[in-house]
Amino acid sequence: MIRNADPARHVRPxxxxxxxxxxxxxxxxxxxxxxALPFVVILAGDPPAARGLTRDLSLGLGFAALSLAGMQFxxxxxxxxxxxxxxxxxxxxxxRFLSWGLVALMLGHFGMLYIWHRDDLGVLNPLKAPPYxxxxxxxxxxxxxxxxxxxxRKRIGLxxxxxxxxxxxxxxxxxxxxxxxxxxxxxxxxQDGTRGLWLAVTLAWxxxxxxxxxxxxxxxxxxxxxxxxxxxxxxxxxxxILRPEGRPLRGWRPGQFAWLAIGTSPFALREHPxxxxxxxxxxxxxxxxxxxxxxxSKRLSQTPPGTRAYVDGPYGVFSVDRxxxxxxxxxxxxxxxxxxxxxxxxxxxxxxxxxPVILLYANKSWDEIAFREELAAxxxxxxxxxxxxxxxxxxDGDAWPPEGYEARTGMIxxxxxxxxxxxxxxxxxxxxxxxxxxxxxxxxxxxxxGVPRSRVDSEIFDMV
Length: 464
Fold this sequence. Notes:
Elements: H1 17-44, H2 53-75, H3 80-83, H4 88-116, H5 118-121, H6 131-151, H7 153-156, H8 160-185, H9 192-222, E1 225-234, E2 237-244, E3 257-262, E4 272-275, E5 286-290, H10 297-301, E6 308-315, E7 329-334, H11 338-351, E8 357-363, H12 372-379, E9 384-390, E10 406-409, H13 414-420, E11 430-434, H14 436-448, E12 456-460
Parallel strand pairs: 7-8, 7-11, 8-9, 9-10, 11-12
Antiparallel strand pairs: 1-2, 1-6, 2-5, 3-4, 3-6
Helix pairs in contact: 1-2, 2-4, 2-8, 2-9, 4-6, 6-8
């Protein structure tokens, strides 16, 4: 018998919808102000005389590019107040598209001068050009290489660790060279006000870099964790249980993730984002369920007990704690995308939450289903219906579906959803996590069945 629960007590004031929207609007407004600030300062003083539309526009593109380059450090700096209203995955996607915008602005700045104002560019030979002009070209090349290496990393087989180190190095070199170029060129920066603005902005970004690359890793180093168990969950998934040796994780909610570094220094840039696959309701120990999918995950999945680890988190908003008023939940997972789902189920289990939950869990085959027995055990406590969906039909002679399980063969599509989801579930939160193609197809099917877009929340499975 499930005792009554009070879901509202798990929702914090800042998680309520009106507060989230307000914080998101304020952050977007601040971003717009930061982009406009250089132009406001320039025009607030003695406005420069017009020197031609194309020339002034090209210089304006350069200023906007530098502002955008600085903002990128905030987007990748894991600033929790910034991540909270959007979600870390959405901010990463935003960072990616802004990076393309940054390169476009820099190319526009260079291209307009090259086409119409070659005298301003001077010689292109770095041996003869002034250093500050060469610095501008170094910045352009650095950001182009940064974007291309990120977009093509998996296609060219670039190791994650080396890519990340190169990513950080190119970002620092590119931003430093861009600042040198702007101050050295002196266009609209000769006055004390504008030069002081750029110096202040540069110091602010340097402070952010100091926090993300030095101070935060130092805090992690002072609060280590220890791997106390490596548990085989089946289907190649291993769960690492970590115990705090310093301060435990603060402000942790079910469904969130953390950056995990194991067997290395927190300064080494060898950390990866993994979902915390258990709930804070179960205690201070953290669980990370890892499936070897490439890069460093195979090494991490084989971590022996006793290994020291470092944790940076929590991050993310994929949590039932934000849905106090929900009448129930629809959860749809694919493969190892079950980890944030099972963390949320653990929380509901510990709280004996009476609300109904429908889980559709897709895998390639029956043998590849992780947490199969654990999900069955949770269903004994919660009002949980688990429907396993496997792509490959079992071989002849195998009982299907297996006794004690509800299972289907095929894909999670509109037909299956219409069969298993009751009409009153359309207003429930629909929590999706899995490979991007699967999520795109499931979202489309849900929208076609009348599920409001505001009730569909998906965790982007691959952020790096």
